[in-house]
Write a structure and sequence with these properties.
It is a single chain. Helices cover 49% and strands 27% of the residues. Strands 3-2-1-4-5-6 form a 6-stranded antiparallel sheet. It folds into 2 domains: 71 residues; 95 residues, OB fold (Dihydrolipoamide Acetyltransferase, E2P), CATH 2.40.50. It has 181 residues and is of the alpha+beta class.
Amino acid sequence: MGTIIAIARKSLLVWLAGLGLAVGTGMMGYAALSTLPARASLQTAEGVVSDASRVSRTSRRTRATSVHYDITLRLSADGAELKLRVPGNEIGETDVRSLIGRTARAEFDSAQDVYVLRSGNREVLTYQNTVERRKLALRQYHVDGMALLLGSSLVMLLGFLLGYRKLRRQAAAQAAWPAGL
């Protein structure tokens, strides 16, 4: 047991693999515990789409760009507005542009994420398609977490093997020195 602790303290590979195991477990846990709201629990608002803007964010760490649309819904004549968000992979820019100035009905959750968007008789976003896309994203998060767990496990095994080999060489070198010196 002392050998394992000694290796774990000194091996950078074991530390990095431990971090990868923690992150991978977190990703899998997030994917497993995330639930999408039932349609009955969604809030509903209807009004004129007064503004829509495309928001792009680039991650500094991964350089991945995510796009979503902020849609402003003017609820009444007194000027009350509601800002809603639709991911860019769920709606096209032409669909967003066609909504400006038109009356729209949106069903959204507490985080202002739109699940259903209807303008007139046309359903721009359907609940079924939105839920399927978001389930796919959660499934991908689970798969990425699993891959990170597997890769980290292999790196940890390699770190322990290399660390054990290094400890044996150090023990052999110390045993080779004469005791009287």
